[in-house]
Known about the structure:
Blueprint: H1 2-20, H2 26-42, H3 46-53, H4 60-77, H5 83-99, H6 109-126, H7 134-141, H8 146-165, H9 171-183, H10 185-206, H11 213-234, H12 239-256, H13 263-274, H14 280-283, H15 292-309, E1 310-312, E2 320-322, H16 324-347, H17 362-373, H18 378-383, H19 385-393, H20 401-417, H21 431-438, H22 442-466, H23 468-484, H24 506-528, H25 536-548, H26 554-567, H27 578-589, H28 603-622, H29 624-627, H30 631-643, H31 650-664, H32 670-688, H33 691-697, H34 700-707, H35 723-743, H36 750-755, E3 759-762, E4 768-770, H37 775-794, H38 798-801, H39 816-823, H40 838-864, H41 866-869, H42 874-879, H43 891-908, H44 914-944, H45 948-953, H46 958-986, E5 987-988, H47 989-999, E6 1022-1023, H48 1025-1030, H49 1034-1046, H50 1053-1062, H51 1064-1071, H52 1078-1095, H53 1099-1116, H54 1122-1128, H55 1135-1146, H56 1155-1165, H57 1174-1177, H58 1208-1211
Antiparallel strand pairs: 1-2, 3-4, 5-6
Amino acid sequence: MADQVAAMCEQLIKAVNVIMDAETSQMYRLEALKFCEEFKDTNSLCVPCGVQLADKAQPAVVRHFGLQILEHVIKFRWNNMEQEEKVQLKECAMQLLSKGTHSILEEESHIKDVLSRIVVEMIKREWPQHWPHMLKEMEALTVEGEAQTELVMLILLRLAEDVITFQTLPSQRRRDIQQTLTQNMESIFSFLMAILHLNVEEYRKLKGSPEHGLKARAHCRVSVATLNTLAGYIDWVSLVYITNRNCQLLEMLCLLLSEPELQLEAAECLLIAISRKGKLEDRKPFMLLFDDVAIDYILSAAQSADELAICKKSAESPSVEVVERRYIFLKRLCQVLCALGGQLCSLIGSDIDIDVHVPSNLIKYLEALLAFTKHSSQFLKSSTMATWGALFRNEVLSKDAVVVEMAIKYLKTSMTNFVKTGFPSKEDNPSCQYSRVDFDSDEDFNSFFNCFRAQQGEVLRCVCRIVPLEAFQIAAEWLHYQIASPIDIGDATSKMSEGLCSILSPSVVQWDAMTVFMECVTAQIFKSLEEEKLPIDQSVEMLQAVVNYETKDPLILSCVLTNVSALFPFVIHRPHFLSQVLYKLFNAITFEVAQENKAPWTRAVKNVRRHACSSIIKVCRDYPQFLLPCFDMFYNHVKKLFSSDAKLTHMEKCSLMEALVLISNQFKDFAKQKAFIDELMAPVAAEWTSDEMRRILWDPVTFLSFVGADQVVSEQSTYTEPAGLNRGRVTFCMYAMLGVVKRARWPADLEEAKAGGFVVSYTPAGAAIYRNPCAAQVLVMLPNLLALIRTHNSLFLPENMACLSESFSRTHDVMDVEKKLIFGLPQQVLDTPVYKTNLERMQGFFTLLYDNCLHIMGNVGMSLQQEFYTIDRLAEEIAGSVFLSLDHVPDHRLRPIIRVFLRQLVLSCPQEYYESLLCPLLGPLFAYMLQRLSIKWQVINQRTSINGEDEEEVVCHESQVTQEMLEEHMIRMLTREVLEFLAMSCIDKKTHETATNKEEIDEEDMIMDSVQTTYSAQPVADLTELGKCLMKHENIYMSLLTLSFTSLSWKDTSNCHRTASMVCWTLLRQVADSNLLPEAVTWFYASVFRGLQVHGQHDVCNTTLTQLAMLIYENLRPRYMDLRTMMTQIPNINVEALDQFDHRLIEPGSQKVGEKKRKEQFKKLIAGTVGKALCQQFRKEVHIRNLPSLFKKPKPDKDILSTEPIGLEALFSPENNDL
């Protein structure tokens, strides 16, 4: 046999060398792999060959393979091995641990890893029942040397990970091992602490002497391994082991923070310990870490690590780089401090009286936290935000004098932190060095900083609640400083205009930071202070300074406008100042850069003008009553702007009209407001309803020609006349219509509405029916709006697509901005092009045009109410425009129809119009979407199910792959949109949430009443009134049911979960009592099984689909025998268990089982339908047998229902304890 083993080992060594040789051809490598795998699976010489190959005289690669063979035997053959073979293999493994490795510093880490895995696999199968002294054997191994000690640490760590963290073994084995570990935890912890103490002490003694350098490194390696093992246990053991002996473990970890080679692992352990949750009284000992000694250790370690975190790249080079290990340690220390703050906030001011007081040296802790908040690394700064927020929100701590004092210091620090600096590509700030470690690109950093700034804003608002006046004073000083400072454009110049700032210019960065700071402070001060305490005089003085500040730089002017908006609420107290503020905003609307008189505006200029428009609308929306006395002045100024040579864009004109309409709502006089709106909209209505516009809007080819989409243009040509002007005319009418429809309203107070003539009648229920002063104008313009939507849908027909010129052939494609949003890619913000291309302009025009059409249609019902819904043949008009040519409309244009228009229509439609309007629209829509989405998902499934050979033959270009990904994303998003709309229309979410909350109460083994209700006690939502209306029509409810159940097997887990849990049974339950055909019922049931086949490997989907299948089976099985027939076709189903389940279900007198048990039984019955994830399909199953249980007494074989009746008091007598 020895010769056989030797010969086989020789072949295996050759095979391993072939596999690992880089020069080997693919064919030979595959043959060698096949040989090795077949040997592991079938050969009887595995154990002797594995042991021989694992000999330390062999090369590391061969040894690793030998150990893998042994691991494979234990994992897949253990259950079939004789007891003597198991004992022999165990002895071999222990011998390998003892003598089979090189010294700790020489041995390869992958050898140590596989050796520890072998032992852990045996422990998982035999301990504690058949290997009771395992822990003692491990302890004995540590005496043999550092290498063995490290291996023992790796074994204990992997055992904890497999049993507790990853739970990679059956529940009974896991329970046995976990309980045994818990029982022995005191000795395990003592053992780990002793090993750590011994090796740290030895390391400290020897690390300074050159002759003992290797020995010191060996002790250091063991210490690191022990700390890593401790980290694997600290996370889940009882807090007692962490805090006993006056927090000895935490004290030792704090001491190790000063050891450069051990500090990172010690910090990891400390972080895990301090982050533990649990009973507050158990966490009270953590307050010891607020002692001077512990805080000093943390501070000292942080200071020394910070000094060493940056080093020179080379002696000659002045440039520096970050030392990653030191920087990671700093991050861990920062997290430790933050976790400590979290414990402090939990313990101080809690509802439970645990006698914890504010630490006497809280100031030292806060100073340490502030030091991290001041650090150059933006990541470290951001890490402290949540802790500051918790401290400033805490009811007790926020009133403490130390915290109040620190709040002011924090304010001054946050002034620096709000400034966006530290881009990885720059060298203008110390934080750039750290950013290069933390972020891949400037876009990545920019995205992070936006989140960081939002966090800072939240904390700043908390600080303002504590020290509002001090915060306002700091904001005021900063504002005055910025106004007085000269503009510094830095070394970056604008692409268009010399002498103007770029987005990264020092002045812009400072103004931007100050502006965000000011917004946060002013927004909070009104909530924190009573009116008489507000600093009105000072704020109006600040506003005066802002209004008087003149700049020709668009980026800085944008910040100035934000400050005007932030300080505007103070104007309410000084009305005489209003006109100056309005003129400042009006001037910004017509802002231009001197050099731009002839050139097109840059994006920065457009943004300033748009910003000014938004500010005016915001002021008019929030303070319309205050602005009412200025209405005439406002209106005259707008008229003057409209008639002058000022180059107002159509959007700017419409914004001013929108602002006027907002103020006019305060007339509270229908006739007066109607007259105003008629006057305001007269030119728009005349343009929109003209014969010329009618001819253009009703014909797709004419429309394309009108907007210039059939013209060939070059990027150099000035593409403004006449097509650009024509697009502007259409855009202006759309914006104006949308602005009026959105903003014109009747008074909220019913008495004021009646007095003003807005109420025309009342519904039978007594609710007022209002009329809108804009109704006449909107209704006149509606026919051409519907015609434009119809024309737009027709643009996608092949004959109209052919009319697009070469320059605009991609007009209807998804815009690049949208693509980036869909793929989750960062937008270009730092180097945005100054101008759009002609194609981008055309794409933007069509996208905005269609969106605005749908926004108007979505808002018109809410705005006009009865006047809209009583339009003759409204359903036919909408269907003939919005739903026209949908087959050709691309997915990205179809989504807004549902999201923007139909959602709003359903939400605002009165119940009396459900039958006449919504049923004729939604019935055909859902039927169409079922057909469309089914075809699209079929294409995706075919694409993803191509076998490997075909896939290798297909060479895809990158653009083709990107297009396919985009299409799949769009279909996924459209599917979610449709099904969310279905759920919104039909399902009453309030009742669903209530039902779900009830379901969360665990009714373990609760005996059900003998009388069964018609339906199972499950979370079931109710239908909305619209849902009830739709379910009256057979063709509509079949579309709804088919769509819902078909979608369960589409490859979208979130959609499957939502639809299965909320929609499917709620709809099916409504028609369960009607005469559904058996074929329909079996199809619905089969659809759930198809869903389990696709999504069953995901726990969340598995639970909801199993629940749905059980509901259908329990409620419909008595009337539909075909459901049982389907169940018998499930692979590997236990027919006897199915018979028992059926018997309980159908026989009225049978013993009932608790809800939880029924679910478990049913889940086992349909387990054969659950599909496996791709990564699991070809994986070899590992079977670990249960051993005789150690801790659980067997339940007595006694049925409560069959025993003699006993009184309630007898249940609590000692002799009935076994019940």
